[in-house]
Amino acid sequence: QLQLVESGGGLVQPGGSLRLSCLTSTFSLDYYTIGWFRQAPGKEREGVSCLSSSGGTTNYADSVKGRFTISRDNAANTVYLQMNSLKPEDTAVYYCAALINYNNDYTTLLGNEYDYWGQGTQVTVSS
Residue 46 gets which letter from DSSP? Predict the structure, then answer.
C-alpha cells in the first residue's frame, strides 16, 4: 500500500508563491505517474498537474499553465508542485495521487485513473 503525504500548504497573498511536497513511501518513483489535484468548496475535483513515471513528461491544466511547475527528487522519493503568481481562485485543498505505471511517458489528469491518494493540504490565497 503506497502512502502519500502532502505538505507545504498555507495562507499566501495574491501574487505569492508556495511549494507543495508529496512524500511517497515508494522505493522508486519510476513505478508511478504522480498527479496533483485540487478541490475547492462546492466544486468538483480538478486535475492540476502530473508527471510521468519516466520523469520525462508533464501535463498541466490550462488554468495553471505558466504558473505551476511539477518536478521530482528521485533520491527523496518526493514530487513537488511549485506554484507562482497565485490567485484567489487557486484556493483549494491540494492532493497528490499515484497511478501504478512503470517507467513510461503516460500522464493523465483524470482522478479516477489514480490508485493512491494523500490526505491533502490546504492552500488559501487571500489578502
Answer: E
Number of neighbours of residue 77 by Cβ within 10 angstroms: 16
Is 113 strand, coil or helix? helix
pLDDT tens-digit readout, 18-54? 999 999 998 899 999 999 999 999 999 999 999 999 9
Nearest CA-CA partner of 87 in 18, 13, 11: 13
The pLDDT of residue 103 is above 90: no
Question: Taking Cα atoms as reference points, which of 71, 49, 55 lies closest to residue 104?
Answer: 55
Q: Distance of alpha carbon 32 from its chain centroid, rounded?
A: 13
- Report the distance separating Cα 7 and Cα 108, nearest Å: 22
Q: Which DSSP symbol is given to 40?
A: -
Q: Which residues of 42-69 are buried (b: 16+ CB within 10 A; e: fewer)?
A: eeeebbbbbbbbbbeeebbbeebeeebe
Give the pLDDT of residue 27: 86
SS3 90: helix
Which three-class secondary structure state does DSSP give residue 112? Answer: helix
